[in-house]
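Researcher: We are triaging several targets before committing to wet-lab work. For this one, the compound of interest is zinc ion. I'm pasting the protein sequence and the ligand SMILES. What I need is the predicted three-dimensional arrangement of the protein with the ligand bound, expressed as structure tokens, so it can go straight into our comparison scripts without reformatting.
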Amino acid sequence: MPALVKALCDTARFAVNGIFTETCIHCRKRVAEEGLLCYACSEKICINAAPPHRGIYPVYSAAEYSGALKSLFAAAKFSERYRALHMLSRYAEKSLGVFAAKDTLFVAMPSRRTFLKRLLSAAVGKDKVFFGAYRMLSMRDSNKILGEAERFRRIQESLMLSGKRLPQAERYVLCDDTLTTGATLNRAAWLLEKERQVPREKIVLWSLLYNQRQHEEVI
Ligand SMILES: [Zn+2]
């Protein structure tokens, strides 16, 4: 049965290639040498870019959501690729490092996936991150299809404090994986200020990636 033999050979070749070489997850052309990316793609990654700041709280991000970082983010968050998470956590660690010397509490935004939890645990240490401070009333509908005004309204209605007592800190860094309009993080900060009486100057917003396109949600 030559067809079967050929199929078996193809399968074997595919498996061997899969073990010994990997194609860059971004350009899908060159061999991946740096983590899951080829050198050319990984060299283009620009970290420590400042997000546009328009709200009342200071905003920090590790990098812009663009180029190879889009592929890395998707691999880490949706396919749970360990090496992608590892690379992103290095960027997060660098970016969050500026707060490390202070009496800082990193507060994670709620998420259906484990990505943010794993990222922050790897970047600053599990004991420095507070999980479960917030909850979303309904996270069934994707925000993707919503316009900006409707998205803001949804977040106003659905994001709330969980009721867990927050430890005292000199600085609260509210952390999310992506920031587009900033609606989630700004609402979270506002709740902390109004319902927990945390002084405004103690609150900082942080996202791993920020998206320049204001009217398009990342997820
Ligand atoms: Zn590449």
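Researcher: Any quick observations?
Model: The first strand starts at residue 59 and ends at 64.
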